[in-house]
Automatic annotation (TrEMBL):
Matching SUPFAM superfamilies: FYVE/PHD zinc finger
Organism encoding this protein: Aromia moschata
Domain Zinc finger PHD-type: 14-59
Pfam families xrefs: C5HCH (PF17982)
Keyword field contains DNA-binding: no
InterPro entries referenced in this protein's UniProt entry, alphabetically: C5HCH, Znf_FYVE_PHD, Znf_PHD, Znf_RING/FYVE/PHD
Entry protein name: Zinc finger PHD-type domain-containing protein
Keyword Zinc-finger: yes
Annotated keywords: Metal-binding, Zinc, Zinc-finger
Domain of life: Eukaryota
GO terms of molecular function: zinc ion binding
Amino acid sequence: MKKKTPLEPVIVHRCFVCGMKEKDVVPCNNKICNKAYHLKCLQMSEWPEGNKFICPWHNCNICSKLTIRCCVKCVSSFCPSHSEGNIRYDNILGFVCSIHDPTKISNEEPIKLRKKKIQKQ
Ligand SMILES: [Zn+2]
Ligand SMILES: [Zn+2]
Ligand SMILES: [Zn+2]
Ligand SMILES: [Zn+2]
């Protein structure tokens, strides 16, 4: 079966780190990944050649090994040997790193980067 690709509309991705929707936000090339990023948000100076950008979400923070234990809230991820104390599986959310673990965030509000609270009342 041939799959016809019609003229692709310009897809504007939302950066997973800062949440901005801009044209220079580049999606990760990993098939299971739906994340996209600004170059500057990954603290990178340029995209890898050949347009094969794979985001840091898939690699262990400590040893860079490929892993699927990736925090749903940030780009932190840990391989099985480094997951203890760093990441765990939450039944509702999925994998969460120690920063985003809801059982560890007690009364504190979740950290929101660069976003001020707008009071609407
Ligand atoms: Zn960004
Ligand atoms: Zn990715
Ligand atoms: Zn590791
Ligand atoms: Zn996290």
